[in-house]
Structure prediction request, 718 residues.
Amino acid sequence: MPPSASSTAFADLVNDNFLRACRRQATEHTPLWLMRQAGRYLSEYRATRAKAGSFMGLATNPEFATEVTLQPLERFPLDAAILFSDILTVPDAMGLGLSFAEGEGPRFAHPLRDEAAVAKLAVPDLDKLRYVFDAVTSIRKALNGRVPLIGFSGSPWTLACYMVEGAGSDDYRLVKTMLYARPDLMHRILAINADAVAAYLNAQIAAGAQAVMVFDSWGGVLADGAFQDFSLAYTRRVLERLDRSVPAIVFTKGGGPWLEAIADSGADVVGLDWTVNLAAARRRVANRVALQGNLDPMVLFGGEAAVRAEARRVLDDFGAGPGHVFNLGHGIHQHTPPEAVAALVDEVHSHSRRQRTAR
Amino acid sequence: MPPSASSTAFADLVNDNFLRACRRQATEHTPLWLMRQAGRYLSEYRATRAKAGSFMGLATNPEFATEVTLQPLERFPLDAAILFSDILTVPDAMGLGLSFAEGEGPRFAHPLRDEAAVAKLAVPDLDKLRYVFDAVTSIRKALNGRVPLIGFSGSPWTLACYMVEGAGSDDYRLVKTMLYARPDLMHRILAINADAVAAYLNAQIAAGAQAVMVFDSWGGVLADGAFQDFSLAYTRRVLERLDRSVPAIVFTKGGGPWLEAIADSGADVVGLDWTVNLAAARRRVANRVALQGNLDPMVLFGGEAAVRAEARRVLDDFGAGPGHVFNLGHGIHQHTPPEAVAALVDEVHSHSRRQRTAR
Prediction:
């Protein structure tokens, strides 16, 4: 079971803007962090990754995971840290046999392709994921109260996509075939995933995570109707089982069509991709949730003037008032120039401070 | 220039349900056709493709193009035919050097990567596309009035994606880098593309096309704001220049967030992908346009009961009243079992007739 890590064991928070924004409380500037902020676009990450030998070597070693989690904070005054890990740790602990071939995406040795495989699936022993909880505690200590630490998991549906496909997919044919042909099997996988994800996130919270995020990276590939029944219903099941002493963020890439329903799922914060206008989104969710997002990561390739102009556009679209966490609409690209991130962080902080003065 | 083909040269239409639905007029059943209905899921297509030797060998030969366009109509009582061609014929005629390597997607030998390449770009001589207009006339004659013939083109933005990337992409980094770093170059490409697409579609109409469709397949990858400025503005420019004696359909995959704006572009019909609920979409567009869509193509892998149930769900979501063209939310998948298509066509026709009786 996860190590017990009562909050008294950790330093007080110095910068709590992120947590305040998640709770829709006033902040001195709009806080920001970037999905995949610890990653290949940083040379120091690539150096640690080389030491670790492999991606999983990095993710399963709490010392390395701590090192890379803190790297972007050394470069940029970001307002939150996020656990360095992978969304597929949970199905790996279920026995599906995760591997990362060099230059390719993740792959499972034992994907769920038939009724027998689904029948054997069970919530994993959390002890198999102790390396994650150890990393959370180690990072939280290393942060020493500088900024809050976000824990995370894939959503039940997103995990199921990988578990059935066995790898990434561009059409989701296998998992959708199961969904439409054998909804009973799909519901069984999703119920087990939901219970596993809830236990996994609660253990991260117990280990020191100060917020948690559910990545529904592939919710947006589902049809209207199927999204509600096969993705959102199980995200909701996760949220119902969570320790709600910390804020919960739900990010559905391509989830714009269902924004109102996602805002009603029990999340404190809804993450948005870059196709959604923040002013319109804010009207749609009223005051139910905070919003996180939503700059197109490709803006960071457009040069400093474009980065600053597009960052202001996102901030101005959200407008005045609390409840905005600035982020990209998807993970940062591996070829992003780090100086573009520096300009982005500076513009978000300075422009959002000006917004507060102008009010 | 395109062959002149006045409507008097062709047989009268027997089944005009598709055209009537595009105009929001009453129909005896909800008409349907399927994006990529002539394609690899049909063994007879694969046989013709083998005779032609290559994809472009097929697309550039009006006799073969006619043969494959009519093949799905021999199997299924579909309500429209669509020209067999490719969206990249226009940039090919611009001199970018299109090729299709076996088992891969399209590729351009001379992508637009710098200012000099963009400066040289021009609206192509339509005579280079005569094979397309010849195919339109040949197909229209072969149809002999059975169902209407739809012509099509890629949208200015979607063509630009391929023209800059040089091939398919999963992050659109090159084209978005140009968009954000050199919007002047991007606007020049898009203006030329818009004029070329308008001339191309008008020539298809002159050759016998009874409706035209603009495929904005990659509009949905753009950020809010960028979509309006770099995709929709140029689709609108195409529509403004079109011969409007035939209905124009605009399909933006992932365009749900901007449905109202797309409905105001001048299109008669707006195509929708499967993430959009048709009842909600209908409320959003009021009575401005007809709607086309939007079954997830993967439903066709779920077995006959699922196909029929999901087809009914789409029809019931749209509800009573005119202005619905049933389609998939994207092209049919190459591994689709043809018997699933037979069940789909039967269910759409029979259930929509029952809807009309129940009213």
Summary: DSSP finds 15 helices and nine strands in chain A. Chain A touches chain B at residues 170-173, 176-177, 179-181, 220, 222-227, 254, 256-257, 274-277, 295-296, 298-299, 301-303, 306, 310, 313, 317, 329, 333, 335 (CB under 8 Å).
